[in-house]
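We modelled each protein-ligand pair independently. The example shown here corresponds to the magnesium ion entry; the chain sequence is given first, followed by the ligand as SMILES.
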Amino acid sequence: MENKNIHWFPGHMKKALNEIQAKIKIIDLVIEVLDSRAFLSTQNPYLKSVINNKPVIKLLNKIDITDKNKLEENLTSDDNVFECSITSNNFYNELIKILNKYYLKINDKFIKKGMKPQPLKILVCGIPNVGKSSLINLLARKNSAGVANIPGFTKGLKWIRVEDKFYFLDTPGILPSNYEDKKYALNLAMIGSIKLDILPKSTLVEKIYSYLIKYKKDELFNYYKLDQNNQDLQGFLKNLCAKRGFLLKGNKYDLEKAENLIIDDFKNGKICKVFLDNVDF
Ligand SMILES: Nc1nc2c(ncn2[C@@H]2O[C@H](COP(=O)(O)OP(=O)(O)O)[C@@H](O)[C@H]2O)c(=O)[nH]1
Ligand SMILES: [Mg+2]
């Protein structure tokens, strides 16, 4: 007999996936938040196997800092994938429009029988730093009724009720990142979804710099207002220190401060719009 348990998951995957599996029975719709700059790298490969064929919406978040042309070259058409920016002003209305379609679809059999549609119970999940808290906090602000139990459902679970049609579990599922594969780990580190201890800082900076020099050279030098006469990493870091006054005692350059700045600016999409999946650098 096929073993349906999930004991074969890597250790760090198990806890969160078990939690999702325990709740999935009462869920009508899953929202998986992804970072559109690396939507393949930010997927959790095991999610599908614990959600029992429940419908999934993939929110490709942070579209405002994504190289859209490159993203679209890598997207296959899928009705359940939506590009968005959770922190943008129009996001809430866009989300409700999307959810209304699922509300009607999932309630189709009730509506056809002339019965009242049921509120959708929605689980939000995703790996760290993709925007889950931003989404949940936004919904909590739009919450019409205060966090509540749903009568007739498992006690102890708190739901955020929105527009009287949607109930969101108020603790988002934090999925582990898929960093076993080196090609994903690097992208995940660059966008801030895994901690630096998995990858040395110097390697991370080299990779970020190598991406920028190869694909976004003009944006890089424009952003930091540096001229392009010195393009090796060490030279660049020194120029950046000089420009910003990053100095240690004895007027030595504080190279680590410059490295941290690049790591942060890249992660936060300040230097330029990027796309990282399936890209060589
Ligand atoms: N540029 C941009 N940043 C975003 C967007 N959504 C979330 N963020 C930022 O991404 C970071 C991580 O977001 P957070 O909601 O804490 O992610 P979580 O770890 O999945 O809960 C925060 O600094 C957010 O402000 C977006 O649409 N665009
Ligand atoms: Mg969070």
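The mean pLDDT is 91.
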